[in-house]
Design brief:
heterodimer, A: about 725 residues, alpha+beta, Aldehyde Oxidoreductase, domain 4, about 25% strand, B: about 210 residues, Ubiquitin-like (UB roll), DNA polymerase, domain 1, 2 domains, five-stranded mixed β-sheet, about 35% helix
Chain lengths: ~725, ~210
């Protein structure tokens, strides 16, 4: 089906299963250790061999010698994969840096070799015997030093509305501030991992991957295979956050190692390799300029962003957070990209929007303070129901409703307008807010839905569940559409033999994949009605029965039926802009003596139309809030400019939030539906939670202490010299 | 490693330079041309109530013995360095990072993994509470969180204090602060932390 017109009444309106807080159907497997992740398919072959990857010891240069003799003689070793014996490894459009180095090295810890051995211990020991000689080349690693060399990427032309320069120059009240955000790591709990098995020229990969079809196509491109020869399977994925959108060295090297040795090979990236071998969210420098009238009406908004990447890589699109945000007649958005020789920068949860919201939403707080306005009032004055650039209405924008609901629940009225005034024991206490604004994109998505002879339902699609709750919402969709209990629906995901779905990324997965199942179920409803001989348009599906015109049949009477359906959104988007909105509230304490920051409360009020499963959606938003807290207070990939790598490349040194860091979190969804967004009348929320909480924390730190830190993360050494006198 | 070296270059430069292999090979006592010889050992474990005898490369961690040799893959490898907690199992009733200990060190020990706590049809109270409270997302840290939580409540019950215990002479209580502190060795990057806390709190309440 093509989704072109606003959704009218449809079977999802019943909301008997959809929209109800529902425990995940994959929960029993995940909590008992019976959910199987990529590295764990030990039963697929009796003779699995182990791969162990060696990363490059230089950031840029050339391999001048590669001595694998000792490694090959080491106990248990079957072979050593290097660029010399791997054959051609092509780069697909989804990868910037080659997944196997040689002879050129383009980033630190780029794979230079993989030992294949009978056991993990043997492979690891042998990898330490490989002698690699390098000719080092000079590289550029620090964004600040390369900022002036940055240019506008070809796909990222400046956007301008009105006369920004004049309006900003003449504005009565101005904020002109530069923020920095460091590089961030996805740091998902499951390292990238793959098992590769060749059978008669066909390659099967069990691989941790968010996007099955992209992964399959990329592997085929890399190895010069017809895509029909490649199968990718990924039923459970131990977190992705964008880090598993594209294949990485584990997938390609497992396949090559298996081809060279004639054995199936399993490979996981060792944790200290993950941070430099794979991808990260690039660091940014962001200049925000806000020009306003005395009453707070914005006259000019400017957002200029600098980031770096390898030659051919993409820019971090931080102005994406500002462009749809607030009304102002005169606007400028600039994205500039410098060439750096760090590892590849790529998408991490809410790319662009997350780091962009860390700055625009803090700068708005700065403007509110300048104006003596409540920061929520400043947002209200500048709220808009049309996109400030295109002038098209948003399909649904309830931003100020989110703020009103949140302010009431959070007790916002208790906030001191003057910073550094509230003391509780040893702590200065502050509150902050920030908007959550995130695009609601959609992608074509297909699914196959079968009614089985016993009246149960099977859903199959290559959609992935990276912790997002896909299994459950797809099951709920089929249950609602076909009138069966959720327990009667089996959902199978993450296999390229299934119809191609939207995959998991960019907050598009939930909307698109449920809409694909909706499309297939609509076809199946017709097929069922035809099978039992009732009018499909008049048929009602409920309680395992189909009824129409006074007749009712058990679904088992329809016999076994299968339909494959697909949703496309080709007609959507012409008249409206599609976004999701929310408001983040934070209260925290800053120790008056040590400047240690402790979060006290976090609240997000979000709106995305219908929420398919409030249980997993809340969890998604909470996860974003916590990742945002990490970005505000802890997380920073530290560049060693001497050697061109991220020095803190493990989970002890790259600090992500732990239990003790996170306070009570509350997530509220506004009631309502968005029939313009999808046939499901709602959008995904997977990235909404991380847009705004970091700025809300920064703003709360300012409210507590009067100190504005513009270089994230906000750590105690940046506060201590400026703390209020006690 | 020898201890009488004088480094006139940084250790990192030494290791990455093209001549590094020769330099390292010249250092007494350790050769870059061969790995230390493999030695195998025998270990007898009771895993989830079942006695197992394994012949293992001595370098095999308890984690890899479980995952790769017994195919008990419920226990996860997140970092292999004791930094994430995904590999938490119980050895003789106490929680332990199974990646930080060699299997051959556990001869005669009793190991309980997530598979030993319960099954989908007959879950442990903690497993059921995690499902009820949505105490996970991707599920990869979950077995470690659950094993850690079960053992952690035993630690509180046994009177073991923590960093946040207000009074070291009084019995520790299973307060929110105590639970969060004691669970902080188990990272959840999806960050289901409030839901995990709710699950543990419910189980603790039922025990009390």
């Amino acid at each position: 089906m093509q989704f072109q017109k606003p959704a009218g009444p449809n079977p999802t309106d019943r909301q008997r299963v959809l929209g109800k807080p529902t425990p995940r159907i994959d929960g029993p497997a995940k909590t008992t250790g019976t959910a199987t992740y990529a590295y764990e398919f030990n039963d697929v072959a009796p003779n699995l061999a182990y791969g162990y990857i060696l990363g490059a010891g230089v950031a840029k240069g050339r391999i001048t010698s590669m001595d694998v003799a000792a490694a090959k003689k080491s106990a248990g070793v079957l072979d050593v994969v290097t660029y010399k014996n791997a054959g051609e490894v092509k780069n697909s459009d989804f990868n910037t840096a080659p997944l196997l180095a040689g002879p050129d090295v383009t980033h630190y810890h780029q794979a230079v070799a993989m030992v294949v051995a009978e056991t993990f211990e043997q492979a690891r020991a042998a990898a330490s015997l490989i002698k690699v000689g390098y000719q080092k080349a000079d590289g550029a690693y620090e964004l600040a030093e390369r900022k002036d060399s940055a240019s506008v990427p070809k796909d990222d032309a400046d956007t301008r509305t009105g006369d920004y320069e004049t309006a900003f120059a003449n504005a009565p009240v101005k904020v002109d501030v530069t923020y920095t955000t460091p590089a961030h790591a996805h740091a998902m709990m499951e390292p990238h991992a793959t098992i590769a098995l060749w059978e008669d020229g066909n390659l099967t990969l069990w691989s941790a991957n968010q996007m099955i079809e992209w992964g399959k196509q990329s592997v085929a491109t890399a190895l010069g295979l017809d895509p029909s020869k490649v199968r990718m399977i990924s039923p459970y994925i131990g977190g992705g956050f964008g880090g598993k959108l594209f294949i990485r060295a584990d997938a390609v090297l497992a396949a090559i190692g298996a081809r060279l040795t004639g054995r199936p090979v399993k490979v996981a990236l060792q944790r200290p390799l993950v941070f430099n071998n794979t991808v990260h969210r690039p660091a940014t420098i962001q200049r925000i300029t806000l020009g306003a009238g005395e009453e707070g009406k914005l006259l000019a908004i400017g957002h200029e962003n600098w980031s770096g990447n390898l030659e051919g890589g993409d820019a971090e699109q931080s102005p994406a957070a500002t462009r749809p945000s607030y009304a102002a007649a005169n606007r400028l958005a600039v994205t500039k990209l410098a060439v750096l020789d760090l590892p590849e920068g790529n998408a991490m949860r809410a790319p662009g929007d997350a780091p962009g919201s860390m700055t625009i939403e803090a700068a708005m707080d700065e403007l509110a303070h300048e104006l003596g306005l409540d920061p929520i009032e400043l947002r209200a004055i500048n709220d808009t129901q049309v996109h400030p650039e295109s002038g098209k209405p948003f399909s649904r924008r309830k931003l100020m409703d989110c703020y009103r609901e949140g302010a009431s629940r959070f007790g916002w009225s208790k906030r001191s307008m003057e910073p550094g005034k509230v003391r509780d024991g040893d702590e200065w206490v502050g509150m902050g807010v920030a908007s959550a604004i995130r695009g609601a994109p959609v992608m074509t998505s297909a699914a196959r839905v079968s009614l089985r002879g016993d009246g149960s339902v099977l859903v199959e699609t290559d959609m992935t569940d990276i912790g997002t709750g896909s299994y459950t919402i797809l099951g709920q969709t089929a249950a609602e559409m076909l009138g069966v209990p959720l327990e009667r629906v089996e959902v199978r995901l993450g296999d390229s033999n299934f119809p191609v779905s939207a995959g998991s990324g960019g907050q598009w997965g939930a909307t698109s994949s449920t809409s694909g199942v909706y499309a297939a179920c609509n076809q199946l409803r017709t097929a069922i009605a035809n099978a039992v001989g009732v009018d499909a348009n008049a048929a009602t599906f409920a309680d395992g029965r189909v009824s129409a015109g006074g007749e009712a049949f058990d679904l088992t009477e329809a016999g076994a039926l299968t339909e494959t359906g697909e949703v496309t959104f080709g007609g959507r988007g012409d008249e409206h802009e599609y976004f999701t909105f929310g408001a983040h509230f934070v209260e925290l304490g800053v120790n008056a003596y040590t400047a240690e920051i402790r979060l006290r409360r976090m609240l997000a009020v979000c709106d995305a139309g219908r929420i398919f499963n409030p249980t997993s959606a809340k969890n998604q938003v909470m996860g974003g809030m916590t990742m945002g807290a990490g970005a505000a207070l802890l997380e920073e990939l530290v560049v060693d400019p001497r050697y061109g790598f991220f020095a803190n490349h493990d989970l002890a040194q790259y600090e992500v939030p732990v239990h003790a860091d996170i306070p009570q979190q509350e997530v509220i969804f506004l009631d309502g539906e968005d029939p313009l967004a999808s046939p499901m009348k709602g959008s995904g929320v997977g990235e909404l939670g991380i847009c705004g909480p970091s700025a809300a924390i920064a703003n709360a730190v300012f409210n507590a202490t009067g100190i504005r830190v513009r270089d994230y993360p906000i750590t105690m050494e940046k506060l201590l010299p400026r703390m209020p006198t006690v | 490693m020898p201890t009488n070296l004088t480094f006139d270059v940084s250790r990192r430069e030494l290791l990455i330079g093209s001549a590094s292999a020769a330099l390292i090979a010249g250092l007494g006592g350790w050769s870059a041309d061969a790995a230390p010889p493999q030695r195998d050992g025998s270990v007898r474990l009771t895993v989830n109530g079942e006695e197992r005898t394994l012949e293992l490369d001595n370098r095999t961690s308890l984690l890899d013995a479980l995952r790769e040799h017994m195919h008990l893959t419920g226990t996860k490898k997140g970092c292999d360095h004791g930094q994430c907690g995904a590999c938490t199992v119980m050895v003789n009733g106490e929680r332990i990072n199974s990646c930080l200990t060699l299997a051959v060190m556990h001869d005669g020990d009793e190991v309980t993994t997530i598979e030993g706590l319960g099954t989908p049809d007959d879950p442990h109270a903690m497993q059921a509470a995690f499902v009820k409270h949505d105490g996970y997302q991707c599920g990869y840290c979950t077995p470690g969180q659950i094993c850690s939580a079960v053992a952690m409540l035993d630690e509180i019950e046994a009177g073991m204090p923590s960093h946040v215990t207000p009074d070291l002479t009084a019995r520790p209580q299973a307060s929110e602060a105590e639970i969060k502190e004691r669970m902080s060795g188990n990272i959840c990057r999806c960050a289901a932390y409030p839901n995990i806390l709710a699950a543990i709190t419910e189980v603790e309440g039922a025990r009390a």
